[in-house]
Fold:
Amino acid sequence: MYAFDFERPSTVADAVAALSAEDAQALSGGQTLIPTLKQRLASPSKLVSLGGIAELQGITSDGDAVTIGAGTTHAAVAADGSIPALSALAGNIGDPAVRNRGTIGGSLANNDPAACYPSAALGLGATIVTNAREIVADDFFQGLFTTALDEGEIITAVRFPKPQAANYQKFEQPASRFALVGVFVAKGADGVRVAVTGASEDGVFRWSEAEAALGSNFSAGALDGMAPPADGMISDLHGSAAYRANLVGVMTRRAVAAAG
Amino acid sequence: MPMDGGIGASTKRREDVRFLTGAGNYTDDINVNGQAYVAFLRSDVAHGKIKSVDTSDAAGMPGVIRIFTGADFEGIGGLPCGWQVTDRHGEPMQEPAHPVLAQGKVRHVGDPIAAVVAETLEQAKDAAEAIEVDLEELPAVVDMKAALVDGAVKVHDDLTSNLCYDWGFVEENRDAVDQAIKSAAHVTTLELRNQRLVANPMEPRVAIGDFNRATGESTLYTTSQNPHVIRLLMGAFVLGIPEHKLRVVAPDVGGGFGSKIFHYAEEAFCTFAAKAINRPVKWTASRSEAFLSDAQGRDHVTKIELALDADNNFTAIRTETYANMGAYLSTFAPSVPTWLHGTLMAGNYKTPVIYVNVKAVFTNTVPVDAYRGAGRPEATFQLERVIDKAARELGVDPIALRRQNFVTEFPYATPVAVEYDTGDYNGTMDALERMIDRDGFAARRAASEAKGKLRGLGINCYIEACGIAPSQLVGQLGARAGLYESATVRVNATGGIVVMTGSHSHGQGHETTFPQVIAEMIGIDASMVEIEHGDTQNTPMGMGTYGSRSIAVGGSAMVRAAEKIIAKAKKIAAHLMEAAEADVELKDGQFSVAGTDKSVAWGDVCLAAYVPHNYPLEEIEPGLEETAFYDPSNFTYPAGAYSCEVEVDPETGKVEICSFAAADDFGNIINPMIVDGQVHGGIGQGIGQALLENCVYDDQGQLLSASFMDYAMPRADDVPFYEVDHSSRTPCTHNPLGVKGCGEAGAIGSPPSVVNAVIDALQSGGHDVDHIDMPVSPSRVWAAMNNA
Structure:
């Protein structure tokens, strides 16, 4: 680990100010950043911990939507249950240590192509609230480890509309247990959304053919034999592009069946 | 009913108290006053010519004490290889130099180029990054067969090729085997890869060098399975330090699985550097370094042919194996694909002629050496897979085919140079069949199919040669070391006992099992016995722990020493009781004279030995301490039958293990609970190999599976609850305890039954798949089912 300065502000405004320093980096749960630092793969001049900011904590449910503070841990989301599919997803991220440290804001800002949360945000049509603006999920995710966040912009909360039915199915990469393929299916007032993580070279994406098929017939049978094209899918040690494309079809059918 | 705490009792592991309460003393827990830290600059390319190493900027950085490069080790010995294989033509293997720090070339990713010693580890790492290495990258040799074509890039320019040796075994059988295969009624052929594995003990390697200027003595604290071997190899072959000026300490060691047998560059470096800078020097591997510097395991590519006559009797086996040595010869690497592999190709079966060809190949990858089972898992896997395939081709029951060909009369001299002293392969198969409810399998398969899954049952047998090994035999086979074991039994004046053993415990439970043996022999409580190991200063020269040898060889040495103790104690007791020595009996810690009420307690005899006021000084010396060295007359041959039942999800290819049963014959057993645990752990590693673990290099020699993010270690929910049975026992005929050793059996015996079960499942679903290479991962199963 290289040396760095450390600040722990207590307000979002102070955090934004602290992050204006050159090569400053926000630290939330640190479940990706700390291992990266320990391996000397990053050398920020300053770490700005978001852990002391009370306004980033907590979950509120108000009728049609659930708003989760960006600093809320996976364990807290898992225990909440306002959106059962979301809580189930959070409860199966990593291991207990990761779930008790890692945060929803940190995961979305990092946008790991195999992380679980991006599929929930995209699948549920969430709105990402930052210190500066609100960004709909369809605009937020912009490829591997890339988001619409500007330099120094901090996610403060994520607002999820409550779905009529939803489910997340993850097929785990055997080593890391990240999603080799994860599919979040949600049926809401505006139709059906199918968001896929782990599979694509472009990161989390919506499988529009499946959404169309499910829009008129929300059943696993509506997807019989369907799978997205293998082109553009990740191919690595753990599975070929064709295998991942197959898994997208299988996991989507299972998610629909489980969503009921 | 075993004596409480004696042989056969499931005594709880006394060492676990300190391991589980954070009171263990691992090498990294040791800090020597004034120690400096070393960071190695390792090659990030697999093959390259070192044109220059410029340390001038780095040397001036904060905290840097000294920077070492290959030039500092000119004229100093390289890391030695402890085994010389002679090839088919009677020529010795090609043996390249293995410098402590790279000289001239780097040959694998992770090859150390320079070492920075600094006041803190972070300073050492900072300076290592500032070293400028001018490296001319060369094409990497990764694929073994490509490495052997004419004109291939050579890993070692001074060798004639990348071929270490071309070994034939038994060469005289070659023509007979060819003939038998030509005239066979049926020949089953299988080509497979036994994939490379990373041992990954929980504790990464650590080395601390310390030099005492006053005495001229060097001390190395290291994570080793065999400190005496390290002392001999490093002292005699690398650094030129005589044993009496070199102490090697391997304290609590957090798992080895073979990877901590070998002498590593970092050990020699820390010992050398400590003297050079007159400061203790400490190195602790990161997990990333472990992936790039611990010797790896397996990595064989094999073609096996099994010939059968019209009655399905095995008539011949022929194999051709390419064995990856990596970039250098690790300490015992040449022995693994030869003497630990070829000698086991008969398995449990009476095949009359066998020919094994092994081509060992240098590549630009991390060196490969023994990993739990070492050669025997590779032999077992190919043999038990080809038998399964033959059974399917012939339409016969796989258990019946095995039983028909079992060796049933002992001793049995195999056509591959070893003699099985005893065994009962039908006995272990009977024990297995009692556990697995084979009759109920059809119903279980139907239930799986009803929920869209395929179900398979896989069976296999195994035999291993362990209790390694008779020194004279292994000497003839190329070992450059003896393989005896030693023990000193020191009885203290008030009757307590310390056993100093050359065996080394790094998870095996010696501190519990060895006292059980002494307690049984003398009839005292096991708590009166303490085991010391791991420090060359207070243990007799021993060869350490690997090859399931500790109880069979080290335990036997301890028994021999204890027998000497008892014989002397009886002389003393006879004197105290004024009786004839021949009439003295020892039972329950009391010496008595047959037919009289005379008796004297163990403790009184011990006290007399050290306070010899009333003592036969004219006949025997005072004191009660004896040493014995034990060299076995043969290997031991544990054997067994394993089964695995799996469910395969045809949509995803995921394999779930429903049940796993193991019936082993380990001969006599000291502590059944510890034996069960050893088998459980071994099967866990075997399932890891079968389903999960895979060490993969790309064609540039970059390690793709270089962390736990990509290298899949088995976790608790990957493995089932095991059923184990050790009731079938044929005691070893040639060691005093009748024990065979149990440490490697699970890892040797389990992979084939898992793969056999998966193939059985796929066949039941109408998929014409007769082999999938390990790991049988979801993507590979799906690809096999879909011809993708």
Residues 110 and 145 of chain A are 6 Å apart (CA to CA). The domain at 5-49 of chain A is CATH 3.30.43.10 (Uridine Diphospho-n-acetylenolpyruvylglucosamine Reductase; domain 2). The mean pLDDT of chain A is 97. The interface with chain B takes residues 1-2, 39-40, 171, 174-176, 178, 237-240, 242-243, 246-247, 250 of chain A (CB under 8 Å).
